[in-house]
C-alpha cells in the first residue's frame, strides 16, 4: 500500500504512484497491487472500445480477470504532469512508451496516453479515475484514414525483436561451438577442434607440431584417485599455456598437441625445452616429440611424425624405469 508522506510534495508522490501502478500492471502483471490503490467509486476506461466500468467491485473484478493475461512489457520515457483540480483532488496526465519484452515473441510498441485522477486522504492516496488510450497515433498530415507512422513504429519494433532474436541465436551458437571445441577440464582446445584443423593441408610457410604425453598418469589415478590425476592434467595445461597459449589441444586423457605457425625453429625448440624444464620443476614427467618444417607443412603428417618421436621417448622412459626397478630388486 502506498503511504502518504508529509515530507514529499504531493505532486511527486502522485507521479510516483502512477508510475508504480503501471509498472506493476505491465511489467509484473501484478493486478492486486493496482487494485489496492483504487478508490471506492473508481471509473475505468481501457484501451478497447468495450472497456468501461465504474465502482470498485466491478472494476476490481475485471482487473482480477487480467491476472496472468498481460504479456510482459517494458516501460520507458515516462512523462507525467500533475494538476490540482479541487481540494485534495489531483489530475495526472502523461504518456509512456510500452513495448513487449523481446522473449515473449509478441511484437508491439505503443506510445500510450494516460489520464488518472487521485484523491488525497489523511494517510494515503486513492485513484478514482483511470483512462488509458493507445493513440491512432501521432498521425501526420500525410496520413489519410490510417496511422501510417504508428504502423511503421510497430514494424520497426518487430525488426528490432528479430534482430534481438538473431543476436541471441548467434550468441547461443557461439557458446555451443565454444563448448564443442573446449576441453571442460583444462580450458584448452579439445579433440574435436584438433580433428577440424587436421583437414588443413597447408598451414603456412613454416609449422611446428609437438606431442606431449604424461608419464605415469594411470599409476597416479590408481594410487591417489582420479582427482589427483585431474590436478596433474590441469597443472600440465598451465605449463603448456605459458609458451603455447591458444595453440594447445588436449587430444586424449594424458595427451596434448601443440600446433604453432608463428615461432621459428629455434624459438619453437627453446619453448619446448623450457616447457619440459618447468614440468620437471613441478614434478611432471612428460614424453615429448616434435616436428618443425619450412616446406610441405602438413599438420597430419607432422603430427604423425611428432607422435612417433614422442613414443620413442616414452619407450625409453619406461625401459629406464623398468631397469631401475630390476636393479632395485637385485640389490634388495
Overview of the molecule:
By secondary structure, the chain is an alpha+beta fold. It folds into two domains: 10-135, Roll (Nuclear Transport Factor 2, Chain: A); 191-331, Reverse transcriptase/Diguanylate cyclase domain (Alpha-Beta Plaits). The protein is built from nine helices and ten strands. The chain has helices spanning 10-27, 31-35, 56-65, 148-181, 191-197, 217-224, 226-244, 265-281, 299-331; strands spanning 38-45, 52-54, 73-86, 89-100, 109-120, 125-133, 207-214, 248-250, 255-260, 286-293. The chain has a six-stranded mixed β-sheet. A four-stranded antiparallel β-sheet has the order 8-9-7-10, with helices on both faces. Strand 5 and strand 6 (125-133) form a beta hairpin. The termini are far apart. The model is unreliable at 143-147 and 326-332 (pLDDT under 50).
Secondary structure layout plus pairing:
Elements: H1 10-27, H2 31-35, E1 38-45, E2 52-54, H3 56-65, E3 73-86, E4 89-100, E5 109-120, E6 125-133, H4 148-181, H5 191-197, E7 207-214, H6 217-224, H7 226-244, E8 248-250, E9 255-260, H8 265-281, E10 286-293, H9 299-331
Parallel strand pairs: 1-6
Antiparallel strand pairs: 1-2, 3-4, 4-5, 5-6, 7-9, 7-10, 8-9
User: CATH superfamily membership of the largest domain, which one?
Assistant: Reverse transcriptase/Diguanylate cyclase domain
Helical percentage: 40-55%
Number of DSSP strands?
10
Identify the strand order in the major beta sheet.
Answer: 2-1-6-5-4-3
Low-confidence parts lasting 5 or more residues at pLDDT below 50?
143-147, 326-332
What CATH architecture of the largest domain do you see? 2-Layer Sandwich
Structural category is: alpha+beta
Mean pLDDT: 86
Backbone CA Rg: 36 Å
Number of helices: 9
The total tally of domains equals 2
In terms of DSSP E residues, the strand content is: 25-35%
Could you spell the SSE succession in H and E letters? HHEEHEEEEHHEHHEEHEH
CA(first)-CA(last) distance = 88 Å
Principal-axes geometry comes out as: elongated
Main beta sheet: strand number and arrangement?
Answer: 6 strands, mixed
